[in-house]
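Researcher: Batch entry, complex prediction.
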Amino acid sequence: AQSVAQPEDQVNVAEGNPLTVKCTYSVSGNPYLFWYVQYPNRGLQFLLKYITGDNLVKGSYGFEAEFNKSQTSFHLKKPSALVSDSALYFCAFLSGSARQLTFGSGTQLTVLP
Amino acid sequence: NAGVTQTPKFQVLKTGQSMTLQCAQDMNHEYMSWYRQDPGMGLRLIHYSVGAGITDQGEVPNGYNVSRSTTEDFPLRLLSAAPSQTSVYFCASSYQTGTTNYGYTFGSGTRLTVV
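Model: Structure tokens for the complex:
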């Protein structure tokens, strides 16, 4: 079955340091990959997506992600973390002819001041 | 432009009661979905619709019904609430042109507790 995996339930990083939230995929064909963020007691907000083209995708709030076909990864990155980046992050892909999102289990990012 | 609107934001039900979670979008999106979010499990697809009059089951459809009589509205019905349906429910909508889907916009969620 096709899926995305987020191998880390929790990531802690110091403010000002670079951050990485990992996502690997097992999706046939050309995957449509997404990152969403969820702040406490809020809905999901779109960060960025990869469809085709450049492997480095830039998104909202200074985030970027690199699509790596050989490693089947789509890690989320930011050069300098902010305390306000602390949130739950989800990797997802579009699946099926009905184009529905399937999510990973989520990674809780905590940025320490 | 309100985006995706969900009501109510909070609800407590007794086991066996029924209710409808409302979802409306004003973006003329043809795709709409319902997800439930449970700790450590991400979001799981309950039902979805690719246009008015067309619905289908997702990963966890049991105990839920949907209908799509208009493009704007996609209500989720709990037929006989069970404690296992305690969760946070999200509605989402999207559109695509040709084969390009532009990603989903999510509502703010409904937190449901079944006692």
